Amino acid sequence: MSMASNKRIFVDTWAWLALSNRKDAHHEIAKKEYEEIKAAGYRIVTSDYVLDEVITALFRNVVFGRAVQFVESLFAAIKGNQIMLERITEARFKAAWLLRKKYQDKPDISFTDLTSFVLMQELRINKVFTGDSHFEEINLGFEILPK
Questions:
Q1: What is the pLDDT of residues 61-81, one digit of tens each?
Q2: pTM for the whole thing?
Q3: Would you say 87 and 46 are in contact if contact means Cβ atoms under 8 Å apart?
Q4: Where would I find the H helices in the chain?
Q5: Residue 40 half-sphere exposure, CB side, CA atoms within 13 Å?
Q6: CB of 100 within 8 A of CB of 112?
Q7: Where do the structural domains in the chain lie, given as residue ranges?
Q8: How far apart are the first and last CA of the chain?
Q9: pLDDT in tens, 23-53
Q10: CATH for 3-145?
């Protein structure tokens, strides 16, 4: 595997929401980090479950037109191959369910996060753009950006 193909980062719900909403407390930090990620040539990866969370939260928290605009910009970036959209298949879902049962002591980790952990392990992605500490708490070697 070449270095280029391994230079990927998983973008979590937290990051998309921070990027989409100028009123978000983390908007400026997220914007700066996203520019750095793109400038460094990272392949951006996200999942359909993350998009589900983003769409649900966006329409609750920002004006309708802005929510539509942001989501459609994500769809365009996926179609244009700037964002790699991974689907949570039946096998990934089952693996996430096994993690759910394994982490009895961490009931507050969302099922979506568990599917993201599975995806990142499978695709050997160790960097994640998020403000969600669950990605470090589980000790799977994930590195959170922004630091």
A1: 999 999 999 999 999 999 999
A2: 0.93
A3: no
A4: 3-6, 13-20, 27-39, 48-61, 64-79, 90-102, 111-122, 134-137
A5: 15
A6: no
A7: 3-145
A8: 27
A9: 999 999 999 999 999 999 999 999 999 999 9
A10: 3.40.50.1010
